[in-house]
Amino acid sequence: MTSRILVTGGAGFIGSAYVRALLGPAGPPGVSVTVLDKLTYAGSLARLDPVRGHPGLTFVHGDVCDAVTVRRLAAGHDEIVHFAAESHVDRSIQDGTGFTHTNVMGTHTLLDAALRHGVRTFVQISTDEVYGSIPEGAAREEDPLRPSSPYAASKAAADLVALAHHHTHGLDVRVTRCSNNFGPYQHPEKAVPRFVATLLTGGDLPVYGDGRQVRDWLHVDDHVRAVELVRTAGRPGQTYNIGGGTSLTNLDLAHRLLRWCGAGPERITHVEDRKGHDRRYAVDHGKITAELGYRPRVGFEAALAATADWYRTHRAWWEPLLESV
Ligand SMILES: NC(=O)c1ccc[n+]([C@@H]2O[C@H](COP(=O)([O-])OP(=O)(O)OC[C@H]3O[C@@H](n4cnc5c(N)ncnc54)[C@H](O)[C@@H]3O)[C@@H](O)[C@H]2O)c1
Questions:
Q1: Structural domain boundaries in the chain
Q2: Taking Cα atoms as reference points, which of 8, 267, 38, 35 lies closest to residue 158?
Q3: Domain NAD(P)-binding spans what residues (predicted)?
Q4: Which superfamily is assigned to 3-181+218-242 in CATH?
Q5: Whose CA is nearest to atom 42 of ligand 1?
Q6: Which of 14, 124, 216, when mutated, tests ligand 1's pocket best, judged by the most ligand atoms within 8 Å of its CB?
């Protein structure tokens, strides 16, 4: 089926990977994409270089909170895949105002426009952080939301607003909640590129607190595949967890990257822990596997090394971004 898809945050790390996949050689036929992105410190048009000039791609520089722009765009699109967000937990701890504004009001503005203009499908990209810290086991979609950080709270609020538009108005909303992504083109404020950039520039790895916080790691290509399954075959009003299947402490991650660059553990520095730092995240992705056939395909060890190699060979992309870290 042909589709005009509005991808918000398409100049960000994950949104751009999704756009490159949609418009790449293995992408679905008959799809055109409009990227709506504010190009905050986190946005980078260079991430779209591989599809620059593609006849199916349009870029709009704008804000998801701007109702006039959003309504105009919604009127010309069949589907919305909503990645745009303020996404860095540490920044939300320093000042969460912009997080509530963009993540909650921006989502609300898009949903309202989708409803007014008969948008067929709305995919809300969320996070496992909405479940809060999970001492054991893995969060399932129907579990209560217990977000800890202002970032996670803004994403949880956005999910609820999105699902309310389904329950109240019948809008076809689908929510995805993924774990920690890694891959090329991620801003160096995030753990994997931050560690790699630090190693490549001769510094010590800053590990929060005791480093025993546990995270599940998901390669961005697996995430993109899962989002595409949800867009094309998910059910209205449903939430789907997306995990990567590799659970590591932050200290384990640091040790793996030290080995990648041939450095020893003396290059780890424990720094003051993040305020309210969640101890453990884990998601059960059995639902998306059973319903849509999703399975992570990317092997973690090789993909982590390939990702680190990518940063080694793309210094010109990330070095200027260190100023905003
Ligand atoms: N990176 C992860 O590991 C991860 C994990 C779970 C969930 N998520 C979610 O996935 C989505 C994408 O994350 P990411 O890592 O690609 O984020 P990112 O920070 O790399 O990109 C966010 C993009 O949104 C744009 N943006 C920000 N505010 C905007 C606004 N008001 N209007 C329009 N555009 C705006 C930015 O310019 C940027 O291009 C987010 O919704 C995030 O919450 C990310």
A1: 3-181+218-242, 185-215+246-281+299-324
A2: 8
A3: 6-305
A4: NAD(P)-binding Rossmann-like Domain (3.40.50.720)
A5: 87
A6: 14
